[in-house]
Amino acid sequence: MTYQDEIARAAKPIDAQQGRWDGIDAESVARMRLQNRFRTGLDIAKYTAGIMRRDMAAYDADPAAYTQSLGCWHGFIAQQKMIAIKKHFGSTKRRYLYLSGWMVAALRSDFGPLPDQSMHEKTSVPALIEELYTFLKQADARELGMMFRDLDAARDAGNAVEAARIQNAIDNYETHVVPIIADIDAGFGNAEATYLLAKKMIEAGACALQIENQVSDEKQCGHQDGKVTVPHEDFLAKVRACRYAFMELGVDDGIIVTRTDSLGAGLTKQIAYSKEPGDLGDQYNAFLDCEEVTDLSGVNGDVVINRGGKLMKPKRLPSNLFQFREGTGADRCVLDCITSLQHGADLLWIETEKPHIEQIASMVDRIREVVPNAKLVYNNSPSFNWTLNFRQQVFDAWSEAGRDVSAYDRAKLMSVDYDGTPLAEEADEKIRTFQKDAAARAGIFHHLITLPTYHTAALSTDNLAKEYFGEMGMLGYVKGVQRQEIRQGIACVKHQNMSGSDIGDDHKEYFAGEAALKAGGVHNTMNQFAA
Predict the structure, then answer these.
(1) What stretches of 282-418 adopt beta strand conformation (E)?
(2) Active-site positions?
C-alpha cells in the first residue's frame, strides 16, 4: 500500500466514530503503522524466508549472485551493520545476519562466558533473535521518522516537488529487516527438544535454522578437537523436527541448513542401527576403525559387528566412544550432505579446518553428482589464520610451478617482514576474491563470518583504552572515535536520535498536541551535530 492508501485506511475507523476520535490523526496512525510493518516474529520469518528462496533461485541461475552475512551478538551491532549497508550500498539485497551459537555462549549466557559446547541456556538463542529484530525494526522507525519530518518541512515550505519526491521514497522504502541464519547447535537434546527450540526461534523471526550432526551432550566448537558425530537416522530425526516446526507455524518455505562436522570429527558415540547391508546404518558403520575377531573369549563386554561375513570389533576408547578410520572424513562429509539433502535439508554447511577452495570443491563436486543443485553456507571463520593460510597456498603454488621461493620461509610467512612482498600481495588478492571464487567453483551460496563483531569490539576497545588512558587523554576519544563518526557520517554520533528520542517526541506530539514536552528543542546538545 502507498502512503496515501495507508492514510485513507486509517481514516475509515476514525470517521466511523462520528467525532469521538477526532483527536486521532489518520496520517499519524499511518506513520506509526509504516514504522511497525512487522507485527510479529512470524511475519518476519515468512517475509525473510521468501527473500532467501528467491536468492537461492538467483544463485542457481548465476553463482555471482551469492549472499553474505556477519555474525552479530547484540541488537545494536546488527542494527548498525544494516544501517551501514544501506548507507554505503543503497540496498540490503543479498546481505543477511548470522546468529552464532559461539557468541551466544561467550557473550549472552547468564552463566557468564562459556565455551561453545551447548552449555548456555537454550532460551537465550530465541531471545537474541527477537532482540536483533527489535533493533532492526527500530532502525526502520527511526529512518522513516526522519523522512516524515522532511516531508512536513517540504510541505511547510510549499515545495510540492520535494514533497512528492519524499513521498515516493516512503512508498518504496526498503526495510532493514533481513534474513537471519540462526545456529541451533546440535538441537540441545533429543528431537523433541530440537522441535520445541526450533518453534521458539521461528516465532522470534528466524527463517533459517542451522543444525549440526554432533552429539548434543558432547557438542564442541567446529574448530576444536574432540567432536563426536551421530548416526544419520538420529540426525535426520532432528532435521524433520525442524521442518515440522516450520510447517506447524505456517512458514512452509523455511530453510534448514545441515552442518556436517565429519571432516574434523573422528569419533562416534553409537553404532548405527542397520537392517540390511548397504543401508544408511551400515554405511555409517563401514567407516568405523575395526579389527577382526578370531577369538570370542577376548571380547568380553565389547561390541562386535558383521562386516562382509567377518566378525569385527570397533575400536573403542576409554571414553566409551568409537573411533572412525583415519582419512575417512571427506567421504563421511559427502555421505552426510547427500543424505541431508535427500531428507529435507535446503542448504549444506561443511566445517573445514582451512579456507581452501579446491578442498571444498572436491567434496561439492561429488555431492552434485547426486544432487545437482546442492549449495553451501560456508563459515569464513576467524578461527582460520587467513593471512598465513593464503600465503602458504601461494608459496606452495609457486613451488609447484618452479618459481623461486628462496626468499621466503614457509613456516614464518605470517611475519610482518613479508608484508608488501609479491607473495603477500598475491595472497591478499586471493583473500579478496575468495568469496566470489568459491561461489563460482565450490557451490557456496552464502558466505558468513561467524564472530567478526566479537573481534571488532575487542579491537576498537583496545585502541580506545590505549589512547584515552594514555597521553592522548580525551583527544584519544575525540580524534579516534567522535571525529571519525562525524567525518564518516556514522548514524549513532547522534546517539539520542539513535536511541529513539525523536520517535518519542513524535509520539508525544501525536498524543498531547501542542502540550507535548519534547526533548528535541533548541537546548538539545545533539543539535551541535547538525552541521
Answers:
(1) 290-292, 305-307, 310-314, 322-323, 347-350, 376-379
(2) 221
